[in-house]
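Incident log, support desk, overnight shift.

02:14 A customer reports that sequence design results differ from what the structure should imply. Their input is reproduced verbatim below. On-call engineer (initials T.W.) acknowledged and began investigating.
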């Protein structure tokens, strides 16, 4: 995976930030165990992150709780841009996209590295990129191999690094790219948003940057459907062969022909409805979101190369899904593997799981709240204010609806022995009834206990859904 081209320290820092972005409050001990770090090295990485990434701040409080604050103007993508910009390997790759070098020495001067470092770096890069049918040649030092794969890789790389910023293009050039992209978007069967059109324009920009180095072969055979609907008179200063090459490349990179798009969209409609019906879920603006889901899916399946950093994140996103999401994921995998969708690979399935949960972010919470009907009881030998504080903390940190009852320890023996209304009792007093699940806790609720309660709620909801007879599924 191209993420391996980052230095070891950068990989750990990036994973640390991702962990805190997914769970903004963690204890130091948990992070040390997760990343196998010493306390001194952990503090060193935190100091360096706070110094180098001005748009976020990692804090550690007096109770060893670690939190991350992402500034309001920043996004997760800014984190990836930073690490791609700082990596020597990706700097070298960017130079080779539009330049050839006659010797290691000239390249070393350009990157401010030693000749031996350049040689090691090229060897490391080649190990990562050779499976995708391109590599770095040594005499001269240049990229060689499958030109379509080279351009797809760089479109992905520059999109992740520059986020649609046309770095060395003038405003007039940028407008030309956008004009072609808008015509292309109008000719496709897709309903594209401005951000998608700008992505298409950015890919045209990347394509034109590569063309400055040398002319490449026209790409693809799915061109005429789009070209016959585009008025080339608007681009009289472009050669038709160039437009064919651009449109062919975009078609192979962005989407498939209209027949495949229509089939894929209809398949997604059928699969998504099955999932929604099983879990009794309704989604507003479903048809509009389905178009976006189809676009994202086709974009990923037509890539011959993985994302630079995101591909690894997609696999970890699927692996880190909670209990309820994992149940939904199994249903997605079951339906997808028996569907007629093209190019079903493990990476594709991870991408579909990511698309589903990010396109329908309220899905998991809504199905849990709808089916769990969870009742929790608190049994502590402390005063009422303390138990009320614990109830408030649970309500605050458990993201699901639940009913919480405070039990009087003096009346604990009166807890009904039959048909108890509680799904779980937690506290520092063991209840006399053994029929109700009980978890012993200290007088202070911990992160692990919050997670335990949330997991129990998820398990009950999924069990209730699985008990529903097939005849009840619409």
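02:41 Re-run completed on a clean worker. Output:
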């Amino acid at each position: 995976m191209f993420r391996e081209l980052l230095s070891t320290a950068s990989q750990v820092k990036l994973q640390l930030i991702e962990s805190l972005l997914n769970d903004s409050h963690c204890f130091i001990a948990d992070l040390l165990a997760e990343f196998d770090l010493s306390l001194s090295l952990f503090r060193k990485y935190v100091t360096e992150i706070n110094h180098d990434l001005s748009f976020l701040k990692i804090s550690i409080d007096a109770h060893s709780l670690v939190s991350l604050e992402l500034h309001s103007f920043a996004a997760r993508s800014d984190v990836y841009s930073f690490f791609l910009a700082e990596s020597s390997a990706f700097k070298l790759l960017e130079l080779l996209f539009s330049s050839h070098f006659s010797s290691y020495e000239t390249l070393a001067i350009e990157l401010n590295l030693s000749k031996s470092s350049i040689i090691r770096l090229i060897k490391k890069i080649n190990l990562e990129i050779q499976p995708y049918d391109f590599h770095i040649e040594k005499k001269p030092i240049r990229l060689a191999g499958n030109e379509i794969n080279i351009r797809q890789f760089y479109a992905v790389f520059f999109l992740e690094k520059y986020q649609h910023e046309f770095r060395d293009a003038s405003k007039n050039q940028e407008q030309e790219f956008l004009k072609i992209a808008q015509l292309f978007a109008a000719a496709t069967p897709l309903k594209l948003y401005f951000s998608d059109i700008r992505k298409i324009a950015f890919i045209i920009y990347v394509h034109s940057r590569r063309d400055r180095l040398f002319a490449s072969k026209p790409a693809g055979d799915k061109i005429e459907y789009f070209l016959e609907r585009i008025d080339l008179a608007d681009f009289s200063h472009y050669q038709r062969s160039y437009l064919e090459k651009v449109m062919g490349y975009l078609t192979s990179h962005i989407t498939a022909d209209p027949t495949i798009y229509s089939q894929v969209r209809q398949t997604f409609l059928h699969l998504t409805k099955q999932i929604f019906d099983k879990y009794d879920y309704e989604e507003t603006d479903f048809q509009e979101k389905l178009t976006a889901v189809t676009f994202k899916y086709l974009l990923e399946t037509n890539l011959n190369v993985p994302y630079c950093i995101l591909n690894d994140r997609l696999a970890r996103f699927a692996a880190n899904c909670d209990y309820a999401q994992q149940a939904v994921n199994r249903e997605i995998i079951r339906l997808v593997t028996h569907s007629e969708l093209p190019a079903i690979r493990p990476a594709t399935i991870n991408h579909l799981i990511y698309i589903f949960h990010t396109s329908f972010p309220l899905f998991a919470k809504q199905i849990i709240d709808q089916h769990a009907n969870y009742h929790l009881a608190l049994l502590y030998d402390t005063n009422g204010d303390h138990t009320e504080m614990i109830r408030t903390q649970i309500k605050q940190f458990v993201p699901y609806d639940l009913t919480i009852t405070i039990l009087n320890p003096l009346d604990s023996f009166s807890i009904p022995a039959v048909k108890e209304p509680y799904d779980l009792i937690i506290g520092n007093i063991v209840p006399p009834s053994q029929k109700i699940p009980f978890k012993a806790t200290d007088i202070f609720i911990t992160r692990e206990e919050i997670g335990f309660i949330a997991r129990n709620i998820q398990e009950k909801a999924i069990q209730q859904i699985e008990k529903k007879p097939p005849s009840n599924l619409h």
